[in-house]
């Protein structure tokens, strides 16, 4: 059995210029979700942590922030939990890549081991002998992929028991993902023969199957925008083999603090604007995104 924690799109260090004074608080919320992810990995414990791109919101980060992240990754190293990271489309592996500027494995104390690996165009896979597993990740040196990252991947005749892919991009949806930087199709996913494909880029949790391959988006561990009501989670993935049959199970775990609620109010039942303000104020919570909709017929005397 192999236990994997899958996360992506943490977007650490996002500027949030539109949030004004609340920008710093939102950055802290995102880092708290990352810390909670590490806490969960250690508490379970898991064998492997996957970060499917956009760990950082951009390639421009102060050194103290990178060291802050490395300190969390060191906790995984100290717990002997292997971690594999790929660059995304925000922390793209171009000439200015943060992964070129900083040696994360060295900062996290993982030099000379397989405890922390950043996959790059020069190193597209890592064999984890202790786990009888291989993690495959095709990474490009440009934001827009020249071809599908799964184009040349076929693990059907490979030796190891478990083959896991990690990609930052979109699963093709005609008319919706045509202009995305990195796109894979379900046909390409099925052709790989992977046991599990860990995806990043979409900030809401979702999952599917193509052929024998189970694939999933973990979503962002803390919502990055107010319309991401399926964010705030990481995925706990269990890969098991019994009597020659492989089974992949996915369990969603909450790590983000933000939660979403929808509230519909019948306008006929709203006595006055002050009463409506009081009603909403009573629900005030810094961790709550409340989507309020007034429906029905508004009385003539109600001025909103």
Verbal overview:
The chain is an alpha/beta fold and 304 residues long. It has helices spanning 23-43, 63-78, 98-101, 104-107, 186-192, 273-281, and strands at residues 2-7, 48-52, 82-86, 116-118, 125-128, 133-136, 162-168, 170-171, 183-184, 196-200, 206-210, 213-217, 233-242, 245-254, 259-266, 288-295. The strands form four sheets. A six-stranded mixed beta sheet has the order 4-3-2-1-13-14, covered by helices on one side. Helix 1 runs parallel beside helix 2.
Helix and strand arrangement:
Blueprint (H helix, E strand, L loop, with lengths): L1 E6 L15 H21 L4 E5 L10 H16 L3 E5 L11 H4 L2 H4 L8 E3 L6 E4 L4 E4 L25 E7 L1 E2 L11 E2 L1 H7 L3 E5 L5 E5 L2 E5 L15 E10 L2 E10 L4 E8 L6 H9 L6 E8 L9
Helix pairs in contact: 1-2
Short description:
This protein is an alpha/beta fold and 304 residues long.
Helix content: 10-25%
Q: How would you spell out the order of helices and strands?
A: EHEHEHHEEEEEEHEEEEEEHE
**Average pLDDT reading:** 94
How many helices does DSSP assign?
Answer: 6
Relative strand content: 25-35%
Report the count of strand segments: 16
Distance between the termini: 59 Å
Radius of gyration: 21 Å
Uncertain spans, ≥5 residues at pLDDT below 50? none
Major sheet details: 6 strands, mixed
Main features:
six-stranded mixed sheet, alpha/beta, 304 residues, 29% strand
